């Protein structure tokens, strides 16, 4: 059933000129090469999985899903604050080198990233889905464009506005944020919640009091702001619905995540993922795959628009 539903969504996006199996004749091993590359790197460094997933998200929200985040340059996207801690570019480069050897000038870097994001979820025990391919690579990458990315302290209203601007709805927002189940965040993005919340209280009252000492120990007031903490306490590195249960229990690490539980427009969606009685349930694995397919078709470049880079970090 899961595979059938995801296949139906993947078929729907063919009208946007990406299609499942785009490389079936031109480069039959394309998907298997990307998959094996992600698996190999994951075995030596499991943290590349959330990074590749996040990299795809950040790519799609700036200039569309065109691999612009992979480009080097003094003012390129990867130099912007939201992307400074991203890693996994070497994974994409590794896959690209293999694909250029097997099928020169055929597989785009944008498609490699879209496939790698899916494979990163799979290696963390998450669902698989059919990824429509056929994207071409963009030629523009500007750090200023990252202002369209949702931030770790943004209100739900602001997050929704940014998702709506990309053709995504409120359920897509909650679903895709659920990818934080395998994510981490630096202390710099949330330590204020347990050390210096506002003029009235040092601790964010939405945090479960029993969770506060743990966060303070991981991110003390004068500690290393670069230290990273898992976003899904008790289930770090495993793709599941524990993230949503943590939100219900006041154990969301990022303010923007915890707000999904306190906001009236998003809380019912979290409840549906948790199977609350009296409301129609949602299956996270199914919804996540569908939302990823939808997101991966934001602003795609196809046909004669864009190019197929030989090296992912540089335009031809």
Please explain how this structure is put together.
The chain has 316 residues and is mainly alpha-helical. 41% of the residues lie in helices and 2% in strands. The chain contains 13 helices and 2 strands, in the order αααααααβααβαααα. Strands 1-2 form a two-stranded antiparallel ribbon. The chain is globular, with a radius of gyration of 19 Å. It starts with a helix and ends in a 21-residue tail after the last helix.
Low-confidence stretches: 9-15
Number of strand segments: 2
The profile of the biggest β sheet is: 2 strands, antiparallel
**Count of runs of 4 or more consecutive helical residues:** 13
Shape: globular
Percent of residues in β-strands? under 5%
Structural class: mainly alpha
Rg estimate, integer Å: 19 Å
Going across the biggest sheet, name each strand in turn.
1-2
Distance between the termini: 42 Å
Percent helix, as a range, is 40-55%
Order of helices and strands: HHHHHHHEHHEHHHH
Average pLDDT, all residues: 94
Task: Describe what is shown at a glance.
This protein is 41% helix and 2% strand.
């Amino acid at each position: 059933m899961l595979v059938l539903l995801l296949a139906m969504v993947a078929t729907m996006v063919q009208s946007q000129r990406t299609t499942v199996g785009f490389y079936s004749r031109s480069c039959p091993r394309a998907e298997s090469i990307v998959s094996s590359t992600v698996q190999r790197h994951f075995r030596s460094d499991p943290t590349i999985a959330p990074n590749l997933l996040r990299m795809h998200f950040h790519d799609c929200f700036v200039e569309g899903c065109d691999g612009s985040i992979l480009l080097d340059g003094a003012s390129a996207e990867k130099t912007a604050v939201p992307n400074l801690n991203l890693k996994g570019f070497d994974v994409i480069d590794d896959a690209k080198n293999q694909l250029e050897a097997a099928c020169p000038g055929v597989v785009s870097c944008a498609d490699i990233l879209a496939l790698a994001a899916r494979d990163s979820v799979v290696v963390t025990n998450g669902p698989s889905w059919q990824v429509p391919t056929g994207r071409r690579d963009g030629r523009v990458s500007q750090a200023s464009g990252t202002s369209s990315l949702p931030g770790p302290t943004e209100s739900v209203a602001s997050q929704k506005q940014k998702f709506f601007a990309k053709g995504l709805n409120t359920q897509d927002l909650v679903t895709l944020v659920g990818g934080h189940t395998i994510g981490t965040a630096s202390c710099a993005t949330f330590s204020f919640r347990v050390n210096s919340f506002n003029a009235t209280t040092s601790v964010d009252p939405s945090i479960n009091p029993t969770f506060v000492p743990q966060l303070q120990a991981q991110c003390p007031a004068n500690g290393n702001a670069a230290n990273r903490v898992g976003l899904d306490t008790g289930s770090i590195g495993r793709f599941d619905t524990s993230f949503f249960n943590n939100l219900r229990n006041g154990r969301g690490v990022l303010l923007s995540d915890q707000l999904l539980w306190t906001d009236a427009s998003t809380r019912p969606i979290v409840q549906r993922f948790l199977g609350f009685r009296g409301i129609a349930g949602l299956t996270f694995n199914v919804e996540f795959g569908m939302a990823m397919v939808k997101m991966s078709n934001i602003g795609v470049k196809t046909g004669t628009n864009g190019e197929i880079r030989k090296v992912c970090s540089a335009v031809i």
